[in-house]
Structure to design on (418 residues):
C-alpha cells in the first residue's frame, strides 16, 4: 500500500480557521489525485472524520475517510488514534486469516502534517441494527446475525492471544478516561451539571461523576472483584452497532462472511472484550437512537429529566435487555469468560462510562447533525447533555451496587431505562 503526502495544509500553509473549508479543499485534492469524483457525503457515525463516496473513472466506488487535526480532540477522536486505526486493520487482516475478509480493506492512505486520509472500497450495506429501527422482531435477523458475527470475533479474534494484567484496569481505562476528558464537559455544560456535588436525574439523586471516577481510582478495593485478570487480542475497541455492517444476509446466515467490521479504536495492544461488547449495549440503550432523534431535556427546581426524543425504538429496548443472554449462549463467549466472574459487572460499569465518554466526544468536534425525524439540526451540546445525564444515572447505580454488593446486576441496571 502506498503512503502518499499531499501538499496542503502543512507547516508553511496552516489550516484556516474554517475547518470545513480546509476539509473540502483536501477532499477535492484527494479526489483529483485518485482520479475520481466526489459524489455523496456519508453522514452516519459518531466520528469527527469526513466520509465521502468517490466514483472511480473505470467504474465502481471508493470511500474517502479524512480527519484534520482538531486541537483538544479527545483520545479516540484525535489524529494519532486515527492513524493507528489503519495499522490496527492491517494487523488484524495480516495476523488472523479467518477474519481477513470481514475487515475493511484499505485501498490507499494519504498523510499531511496535520491530517490523514485513507480510502476503502464502497459496499452497499446496512448497519446490523437497521432492521430493528424498521420494527423487525429481534429474533428474525438481528439476533442470528449478531450471534454469528460475535462467534467469529470472539472465537477467532479475542481468544487468539491473551496476557495477564494487573489489578486496577477499570480505574486505569474507564475512570482515568473520564477524568482526562472532564475539562471538555466543564467547558460546555452548565456548572449545575458538572460542578455540583449531587445531580438529580429522572428522580434519582446521583453523585458527581468526576468524584465517582476519582473514588474508583482512590479506592481500588471497590473494583478488585470485577477487574479483568487477562486482556485479549485487540479485535476492535469501539464495537458499536454502526461499526458492524451487513452486506449479504444469506452469507451471514450460512457462516460465509457477508459482513464488514469497520473503524476500530486505534489500538495495537491487548484489550478487554468487556469494553467492546458494552459498546453494543450502549448503542441500544442511548447512543444510536440519541444521535438519530436527539434528547428531550427538562429542568425543574434543580432536577433534570432526560429521555430519547419521541422514545427509543421498541426493538432497541428488547435488544438491550437480551444482549447479555445472547452472549451467554455463545460457546466462544463461555470460553472467554469461564475464569472471569466479574465480567458482567465490568460490562455494565463500562456501559456507564461509555455514556459519559460519549458526552465529551459530542463536544470534541462540536459538529451539528440532522435529526432523523426533523430537518432541524441537533445541537451537539444537547447531545452531550443527553449522554451525560444518562451516564450520571447509570454510573451512580453501578458504583452504588459495587459499594453495597461488590457486583453490578444486569436487570437492576437496565431498569433505569424505564
Amino acid at each position: 500500500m502506498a503512503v502518499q503526502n499531499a501538499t496542503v495544509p502543512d507547516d508553511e500553509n496552516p489550516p484556516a480557521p474554517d475547518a470545513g473549508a480546509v476539509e473540502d479543499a483536501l477532499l477535492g485534492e484527494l479526489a483529483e489525485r485518485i482520479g475520481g469524483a466526489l459524489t455523496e457525503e456519508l453522514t452516519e457515525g459518531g466520528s469527527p472524520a469526513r466520509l465521502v463516496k468517490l466514483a472511480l473513472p473505470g467504474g465502481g466506488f471508493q470511500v474517502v475517510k479524512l480527519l484534520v487535526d482538531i486541537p483538544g480532540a479527545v483520545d479516540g477522536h484525535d489524529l494519532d488514534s486515527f492513524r493507528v486505526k489503519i495499522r490496527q486493520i492491517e494487523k488484524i487482516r495480516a495476523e488472523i486469516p479467518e477474519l481477513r475478509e470481514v475487515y475493511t480493506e484499505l485501498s490507499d492512505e494519504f498523510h499531511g502534517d496535520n491530517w490523514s486520509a485513507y480510502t476503502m472500497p464502497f459496499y452497499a450495506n446496512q448497519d446490523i441494527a437497521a432492521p430493528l429501527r424498521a420494527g423487525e422482531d429481534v429474533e428474525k435477523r438481528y439476533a442470528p446475525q449478531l450471534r454469528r458475527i460475535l462467534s467469529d470475533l470472539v472465537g477467532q479474534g479475542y481468544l487468539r492471544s491473551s496476557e495477564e494484567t494487573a489489578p486496577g484496569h477499570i480505574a486505569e481505562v474507564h475512570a482515568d478516561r473520564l477524568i482526562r476528558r472532564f475539562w471538555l464537559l466543564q467547558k460546555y455544560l452548565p456548572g449545575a451539571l458538572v460542578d455540583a456535588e449531587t445531580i438529580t436525574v429522572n428522580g434519582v439523586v446521583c453523585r458527581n461523576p468526576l468524584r465517582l471516577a476519582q473514588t474508583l481510582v482512590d479506592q481500588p478495593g471497590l473494583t478488585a472483584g470485577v477487574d479483568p485478570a487477562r486482556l485479549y487480542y485487540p479485535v476492535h475497541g469501539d464495537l458499536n452497532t454502526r461499526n458492524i455492517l451487513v452486506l449479504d444476509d444469506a452469507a451471514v446466515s450460512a457462516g460465509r462472511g457477508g459482513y464488514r467490521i469497520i473503524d476500530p479504536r486505534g489500538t495495537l495492544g491487548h484489550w478487554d472484550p468487556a469494553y467492546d461488547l458494552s459498546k453494543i449495549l450502549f448503542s441500544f440503550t442511548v447512543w444510536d437512537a440519541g444521535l438519530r432523534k436527539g434528547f428531550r431535556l427538562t429542568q425543574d427546581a434543580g432536577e433534570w429529566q432526560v429521555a430519547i426524543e419521541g422514545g427509543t425504538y421498541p426493538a432497541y429496548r428488547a435488544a438491550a435487555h437480551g444482549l447479555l443472554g445472547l452472549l451467554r449462549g455463545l460457546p466462544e463467549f463461555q470460553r472467554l469468560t469461564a475464569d472471569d466472574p466479574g465480567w458482567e459487572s465490568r460490562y455494565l460499569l463500562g456501559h456507564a462510562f461509555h455514556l459519559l465518554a460519549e458526552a465529551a466526544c459530542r463536544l470534541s468536534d462540536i459538529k451539528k447533525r440532522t435529526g432523523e425525524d426533523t430537518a432541524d439540526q441537533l445541537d451537539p451540546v444537547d447531545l452531550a447533555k443527553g449522554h451525560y445525564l444518562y451516564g450520571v444515572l447509570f454510573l451512580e447505580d453501578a458504583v452504588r451496587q459495587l459499594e453495597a454488593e461488590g457486583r453490578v446486576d444486569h436487570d437492576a441496571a437496565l431498569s433505569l431505562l424505564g
In short: Residues 147 and 329 are 9 Å apart (CA to CA). DSSP finds 14 helices and 17 strands in the chain. The first strand starts at residue 3 and ends at 4.
